[in-house]
Specification:
423 residues; RNA-binding
Length: 423
RNA sequence: GCGUCGAUGGUAGAGUGGUCAAAUACGACACGCUGUAAACGUGUUGCCUUCGGGCUUCGGGGGUUCGAAUCCCUCUCGACGCA
């Protein structure tokens, strides 16, 4: 993997670059569609590609449970298995520590509002006897499968092993995504844990890479005629590992984490954990001021249209988020003037496209009334057309931001877009 | 013509003397969703309301009862059976 910065945003941490992986090039900043179970829900890979996406992200824990990482390995790896031949990433399962743990069965999001009054009522979340599917130990996390109730202990080593079996281009260290409802003391403990797990993830990764190279060399020495392209094979088969910075909303912890993780020999970095919407920007800035400039940074699980400007301005190169596909499937569409809930009465006989000047397949071929009809009728195509539109909207928004950096028009574009979107 | 059964809110369908403005599902309406437990979830869905409550509803009419969607009579409509 190679990362090259093309242009910087003068006076800020932002930059446009090119990330080269064994399966192709990613122009950063870029949006990474999420395909948790080796599929971008409701879309086929051609549609994902047509929407302009250059890279996708799948999930370690979910694929480990089903169909099993060994099965994916036998299939020839994720790319071949799911017919996505561009760059791929896998998340480590760290988010499931949160979503199946502290957040399980509760109405908690990793994004909170400072003003959220429910955060002032700790009892609301203190149902310690509430069932959790993820329980954190010092060594790893014990997961109870939501599919069949079986117990699985995931350690950093295990996560990395699974990810090597899955065979994405970029993989992530196993971390603990903490809940925004945890207090500072807990955030600190969790951070120490995540840091130890980062070291162990890195160590396991290096070990597996060494084994892979040794194995490839062994094969090479056995067959003379294969010698030439062999060096390429080494580099193209090697995975890049990103470490993950945590620390919640606390400035000291974020900086401490960025310093610690940034000093380790990772190929790039993820910025994870919970944020308050209002201070996400400063949290990202604290971190990216410390992380080594020459390595790519991925803001995990973000975001909404307005978040990209914040992140990119503060030095983020990659974003992934389920929002465009989940919102789409659930009938909410992005437009330049804000969200549109397509099932609302007003669209039942609206025969205009979702957005007049949108270049996506959905807008070029279908009306609001038709998409609304599909949703009312619970037709599968509705989710597909909506996901295509939303993903096109988001992927291209980030592309436009990238272009605005290259054109020295970032702030003009930001102002213009947000004026309309957040109207 | 006789007999039997049935008629409940937008729809289907519970309820068969008070705890019923009436279960549940669907539909409708509105909202939510940020590294996917999610093609999912939440709220509202007779009328009025100072949100305390008030008022009119279970095919129509009449009756019994302190009290009726629920029991009785009758009418209307429907299904089935017998002529």
């Amino acid at each position: 993997m190679e990362f090259k910065i093309e242009k910087k945003l003068k006076g800020y941490l932002g930059r446009a670059g090119v990330l080269t992986t064994p399966h192709g090039v990613i122009h950063t900043p870029a949006f990474v569609p999420v395909g948790t179970k080796a599929t971008i829900k409701s879309m086929n890979p051609d549609q994902v590609k047509d929407v302009g996406a250059e890279v996708t992200l799948a999930n370690t824990y979910h694929l480990y449970l089903q169909p099993g990482d060994e099965t994916v390995a036998k299939a020839g790896g994720l790319h071949k298995f799911m017919n996505w031949h561009g760059p791929m990433m896998t998340d480590s399962g760290g988010f499931q520590v949160f979503s199946l743990g502290a957040a399980y069965g509760k109405d908690i999001s990793k994004i909170t509002k400072i003003t959220d009054p429910s955060l002032l009522i700790p009892e609301r979340f203190d149902d310690s006897n509430a069932p959790r599917l993820a329980k954190i130990g010092q060594d790893g996390v014990s997961f109870k499968s939501h599919l069949d109730g079986s117990i699985h202990y995931i350690t950093p080593e295990k996560s990395i092993q699974i990810q090597h079996n899955l065979g994405a281009d970029i993989i992530f260290a196993f971390d603990e995504c903490t809940s925004p409802t945890e207090d500072l003391k807990y955030q600190e403990e969790a951070l120490e844990r995540t840091h130890r797990w980062a070291e162990r993830s890195l160590e396991e990764h290096k070990k597996l890479e060494r084994e892979k190279i040794a194995q490839a060399n062994g094969l090479a020495s056995r067959s003379e005629e294969n010698r030439g392209p062999e060096n390429e094979l080494f580099s193209s088969s090697s995975l890049a590992l990103f470490g993950i910075v945590q620390g919640g909303r606390d400035e000291n912890l974020r900086k401490k984490s960025a310093t610690f993780i940034g000093a380790l020999d990772f190929d790039g970095f993820g910025i994870g954990g919970s944020f308050a919407k209002e201070d996400m920007s400063s949290a990202v800035k604290w971190v990216n001021e410390i992380l080594p400039e020459e390595k790519p940074r991925h803001l995990l699980g973000i975001g909404e249209p307005e978040d990209f400007f914040m992140g990119i301005e503060n030095g983020v190169d990659l974003f992934d988020c389920v929002a465009p596909t989940r919102l789409g499937r659930n009938g909410t569409l992005y437009t330049k003037t804000g969200r549109m809930i397509i099932m609302n009465t007003q669209f039942r006989e609206d025969f205009s496209p979702i957005e007049k000047d949108c270049g996506c397949y959905t807008c070029k071929n279908y009306t609001r009334a038709y998409v609304a009809h599909l949703f009312h009728g619970k037709e599968m195509l509705g989710g597909t057309l909506a996901s295509i539109h939303n993903l096109y909207f988001i992927v291209n928004l980030v592309k436009k931001i990238r272009q605005s950096i290259l054109d020295d028009k970032f702030f003009e574009f930001k102002e213009e877009f947000l004026k309309n979107y957040l109207k």
